[in-house]
Amino acid sequence: MPQLMRAMDDPGSAPDKLARIVAHDPVLTSDVLRLANSPIYRTSPTPVETIQRAIVVLGADALRGLVAAAMLQPVFRATRSNFPRFPRMLWERTERAARAAELYALKALPQDRFEAQLAILLSALGPLVVYGATLDVYSQRPRLTPSPGLFVSLTAALGPQVSLRIAQNWETSPRLVAAIERAPDEALTMALCAGELLGTLSLLQTQNVITADEGLATANDIGLTATVVEPIWLRLTTGQ
What we know:
This protein has 240 residues and is mainly alpha-helical. It has 11 helices and no strands. The chain has helices spanning 2-9, 15-22, 26-36, 51-76, 85-108, 113-139, 148-169, 174-180, 187-206, 212-221, 226-238. Helix 5 packs across helix 11 (226-238). The model has no long low-confidence stretch (mean pLDDT 86).
């Protein structure tokens, strides 16, 4: 992932170099070809059959968002013996948050729509790593019963730090690192926070914890502009 991200951020990287990296992952290869042949990107009746051509068709921004999601999804779906719903629920919330952040960025900072998606993915990766590490420690102490409260406390306390460390080690852009640090003067920070809030609220709505009206009211109450939030909320809750 870091290797591919650095290559995509390098203006001198030719499509054939990116294609060689993508080809190492069969799932990612399939996703790239599928998206390039979708009605959104395909511009001719001739199907896109090579990775290199697919990369040209998609462009760097679309490829960056697709790669991030495709590479991280298997991590979130890793099976665990305790609390197995957590990775699945976290991934669903992350997908919703990434979509919300992208839609928010389209209104506020369209050039950063895929950067906003990546910020969401990295922000969610830290808590997942803490969760897995905690389970590993419990597995070494079989006499202890895993405590849900401890998992919540650890992921809340350490998750953001781990997300930041991952972003730094992967050599992501300074703006992306600043957003994950929640720097108030970084425009991406607002896209990240809005995406996480709306993604969480829409997941709670699907679980019947809150109603759709309550979720929208909560988003509006914290000061997000209604003209921006309401179309995003409609997309998240109805798919329209």
